[in-house]
Inverse folding.
């Protein structure tokens, strides 16, 4: 019973945060509910650490889960045909357009896409991303540059 | 932290009160000056609020029950949809042909049964006699005059006997309609629900969201037929009190406009028939006097509509109605400016569908101040799910905060289709408010 209460308290505290996170990623209430459920069950043990650590877990698990879900979705909204023309050499500037970033991220390799999402869509810096995903800063930098190269290639192919 | 913006991670930390004092200060300072980050903050907040409205909010019990309930919902939803459809058809079918229809009765129509499976698995949902209940709920005069239509969303909690434990208006229509619905559910025996039955076959307490639809019969069909000010932009409507009734002329300056007015007037005259109630429609609203006769004649630059009745009360009513109608609120939506990937046409369609709400905001103040007119520009943000997250008055020369805030508040409740590819859309939408007949 004590266990139950403890769990309920954690749920009351973090449930809305997880849900808001999933909803932001998936853009769909029903799917976000499922992902919230899944996320909470997977990480409830970790939620008792400090709020900052707990939130990092939420971001790690929920982000991966939701990006997988997005990749699996066959009927996800297609990118509109009008990608910005001339993206230029500077991907970072182009990715400040978060709409474009989201669309590119959906195509990326799973490991890389989580990094790219946290960085470009959520606006985290590399240290925060490393903290959340449990990666080294070096790996984050590598993933990002790989993503940038691929994004550039993709945009040139489609837009060019 | 990102040098330019606050990350969503940091915003969540702020919400969890897990930032150090310094960090918090810095974030708050940045938020004060950065619209984009405030939008992010608002999006996160609305996401958390949505959690509270959804099925997850019932806590761990909800979690445990969730999978099962979903399956039940899948089974039930087609049945509910069918039931709703049948109900709509039933309500729609007794409608007489327009030709001999009497005055539009200000009768609300009710088209929903409880549809939100909110309190766990059930064997059967609460049921209400929709016909009887909608008979019991009345329109208010004010709402009829303003042509208010739409849904009142209620949160209802029943006890295990089907008795009303609590009732709360989630979304209202105002003008006394919300109170009428709530009172009917509280007091009228016609508006009693049967209890919900649990999986074990025993009655159980139940909470759900219920939508009650107010519709002015006939108004939709008729309003489409004679909207002179809207369909013929330079049409003039003039009305004169005469002994025993009212004469109105509708004129236009060019041949096309005149032809359009004549065509629409004939459709109207055919629709209401002569000898039955006189119905006029000048700006999407319907006015009627039960015993007046309508005759239609063509004049050089348009038409004359004449209503005659022997009933003195009717004459007065018609004349008063006409005077009021001459100052009917008119709202002309302008051309939106859109930032983000979103078709302007889609936005315009949604705005047009809700234009009556804007009109009603304007109408309320127009009654107090007859020469009120101006242009109000509303800026709103459509989230990735199609909901409006933000809606503010961007600029206005109306000098009337209550109209401006009322419009911004109405826009906040609108729902748009999901933007393709997600992302946020920022729209600036101008509305021109003026009174018909004002020159």
């Amino acid at each position: 019973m004590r266990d139950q209460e403890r769990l309920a308290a954690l749920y009351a505290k973090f449930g809305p945060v997880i849900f808001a996170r999933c909803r932001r990623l998936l853009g769909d209430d029903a799917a976000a509910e499922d992902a919230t459920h899944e996320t909470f069950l997977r990480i409830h043990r970790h939620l008792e650490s400090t709020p900052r650590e707990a939130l990092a877990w939420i971001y790690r698990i929920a982000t991966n889960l939701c990006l997988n879900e997005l990749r699996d979705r066959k009927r996800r909204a297609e990118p509109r045909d009008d990608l910005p023309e001339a993206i230029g050499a500077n991907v970072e500037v182009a990715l400040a357009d978060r709409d474009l970033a989201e669309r590119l991220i959906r195509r990326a390799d799973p490991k890389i896409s989580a990094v790219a999402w946290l960085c470009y869509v959520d606006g985290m810096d590399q240290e925060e991303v490393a903290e959340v995903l449990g990666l080294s800063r070096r790996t984050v930098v590598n993933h990002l540059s790989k993503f940038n190269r691929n994004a550039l290639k993709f945009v040139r192919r489609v837009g060019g | 932290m990102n040098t330019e913006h606050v990350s969503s991670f940091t915003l969540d930390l702020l919400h969890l009160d897990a930032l150090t004092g310094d960090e918090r200060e810095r974030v708050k300072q940045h938020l004060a000056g950065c619209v984009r980050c405030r939008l992010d903050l608002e999006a996160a907040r609305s996401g958390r609020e949505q959690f509270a409205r959804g099925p997850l909010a019932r806590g761990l019990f909800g979690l445990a029950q969730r999978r099962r309930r979903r399956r039940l919902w899948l089974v039930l939803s087609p049945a509910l949809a069918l039931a709703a459809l049948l109900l709509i058809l039933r309500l729609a079918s007794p409608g007489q042909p327009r030709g001999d229809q009497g005055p539009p009765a200000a009768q609300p129509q009710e088209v929903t049964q409880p549809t939100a499976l909110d309190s766990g698995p059930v064997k059967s949902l609460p049921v209400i006699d929709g016909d009887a209940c909608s008979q019991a709920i009345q329109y208010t005069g004010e709402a009829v005059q303003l042509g208010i239509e739409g849904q009142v969303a209620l949160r209802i909690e029943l006890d295990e006997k089907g008795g009303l434990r609590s009732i709360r208006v989630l979304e209202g229509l105002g003008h006394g309609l919300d109170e009428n619905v709530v009172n009917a559910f509280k007091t009228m025996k016609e508006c009693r629900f049967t209890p919900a039955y649990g999986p074990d076959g025993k009655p159980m307490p139940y909470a759900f969201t219920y939508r009650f639809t107010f519709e002015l019969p006939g108004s939709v069909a008729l309003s489409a037929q004679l909207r002179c000010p809207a369909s013929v932009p330079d049409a003039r409507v003039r009305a004169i009190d005469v002994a025993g009734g009212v004469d109105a002329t509708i004129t236009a300056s060019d041949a096309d406009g005149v032809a359009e007015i004549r065509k629409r007037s004939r459709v109207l005259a055919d629709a209401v028939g002569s000898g039955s109630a006189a119905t006029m429609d000048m700006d999407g609203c319907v006015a009627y006097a039960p015993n007046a006769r309508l005759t239609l004649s063509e004049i050089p630059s348009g038409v004359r509509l004449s209503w005659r009745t022997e009933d003195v009360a009717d004459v007065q009513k018609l004349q008063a109605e006409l005077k009021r109608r001459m100052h009917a609120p008119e709202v002309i939506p302008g051309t939106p400016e859109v930032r983000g990937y979103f078709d302007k046409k889609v936005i315009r369609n949604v705005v047009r569908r809700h234009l009556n709400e804007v009109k009603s905001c304007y109408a309320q103040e127009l009654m107090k101040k007859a020469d009120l007119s101006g242009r109000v520009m509303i800026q709103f943000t459509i989230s990735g799910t199609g909901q409006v997250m933000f809606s503010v008055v961007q600029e206005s020369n109306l000098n009337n905060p209550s109209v401006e805030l009322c419009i911004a508040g109405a826009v906040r409740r609108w729902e748009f289709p999901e933007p393709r590819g997600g992302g946020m859309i920022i729209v600036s939408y101008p509305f021109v408010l003026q009174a018909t007949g004002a020159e």
Summary: Confidence is low (pLDDT under 50) at residues 61-118, 217-230, 274-289 of chain B. The two ends of chain B are 58 Å apart (CA to CA). The CA atoms of residues 8 and 40 of chain B lie 7 Å apart.
